[in-house]
Amino acid sequence: MKKIRIVLTICILFFACTTDNESINLQEIKEDTIVHGANKTTNNASCQTQTYTVFHSFLNQWSRTVQLPATGKFVQESHYVTTQDKFSGGRLFANTVTENINSHLQRSFSLYKNYDSSKTFGQLYSASFQKQWTPAESGSIGQGSVGNIQTQELTPEKEMWFMTMMWAPGTRPPRGTKFLLSANGKKVVVIAGYETGPRSQSFLGGLTTETHAWLGTNNNSQITVSFLKDQSIPIGPITCDNALDISSPTTSISTSGGNTQSGDFIANFSDNDNIEVTRRFYQALEKYGDNWYANRGNGFFNDNCNVLYSGYTTGAGNWSINNKHLRQSNTSSDNTKISTFLSQNSGLPYLYEFAAKVESTSGPRKFGIHIMASDSNQSQRGNSYLIWFSGEDNKVRIYETVNNVLNFRAIGDAPQDNKWGNYKITYSPAYGVLEVFKNNRSILKWTDASPIKNGSSISLRTNKTVAEFDDLKVYKFRAGNSQIITAGTAVTKDIRRRNGKVKSLVRDAAGNWSNSGNLDVTLNF
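Below the sequence we write its predicted structure tokens.
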């Protein structure tokens, strides 16, 4: 069992929640943007997982039950003696933490280069502890928790793709049990059952240097671990074949202390999928009379279009409420406008969602939304992205406005049928990845090499088209399974009214979206 070599502030929950989402390392939310110079094809398999319960404990100091899949931090482990490591005098293990370590590292490096030829030896093993055996605790240097059998079973390949957890006595899984790890859009199959640790409750488990390198993670990263349904899948990096995955993920919300709270509280999310949940979003709402709105200064927005929201600023067009839908009926203006302030400066991904229906049967039949807009008073909303749907040619286009000038960026198919459709747009300010969904199916994805980092408004728009909108919402990204919701009378709080609500939406690796998870809360402050 490896000693922890770093000092970290322990979060109050095991999956290492952060009290300030804006401080999350942006490397941990990168999606589909890591390219390795690999010259060995990764394994391709169906990554179906199943629920699995693990029990952790350390002496009488702490214990917990973890339901997989779960997301948390994994400490980086030093190295373990394999079937190919030899020591003088026929010893099975090392006498010092560096004895014969170089031959072990060269062997592992050669294996790793098969998957990622871009890494140098110095890059892979840069820190001193990455060039050492795991220290002796109750056993020998370089030894795990299973005795001498390790030297007969733990091959160099197995030792590279290796996971530890602080298994409670009697609950360590059989040697070679396989789990799926996911982070940064990458996946790897690892084995467990050879080691117990780490002792710190702030970590979900431990991983080897090579596993962290492949995932692009470190000790502070959020990594999702799941139990593989098919235990015959080979270990190592894997590409999941999700072509047949049509199962939607699920999400639900609970909180300690029940539905009545007196101030800030932690919302606990249970996200599940048959393969893997890859994106998580949440929204905090507050009730004003019969309507649910949100704190726009905190990056949330909600309009169910029951009444004309007083927070809108209207420009060209005839905007009104018709049968609890937001209706634009002007057919002469090619740039109608209704806008609202919305702070979009967290640096983390946002989810924009709305329903729309075109009523015009001729003409342009065009509508869309500006996101990350810098100035909604300008004709093209300053700097922004315009996601623009056209019934004229059944296409969706992404435009970027730069200094109030529209610039075409990308195009995709988006048939319009004069029926209600659900539209979702996800955008990552850190990496410029913008993806458009219609009725929960991805229809266009584009990456801006110089992404817009901040925005102060969103704005709906039509072109000589009668259209109706409904349920305009903006969600914020969450990294794990818990989120602090601030509540109180201060203007900076997420919920400032007696009646509040927390909502959740998640997406899986195949692009399937969940239904909304909801938690109603009553605030006493």
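The CA atoms of residues 238 and 485 lie 36 Å apart.
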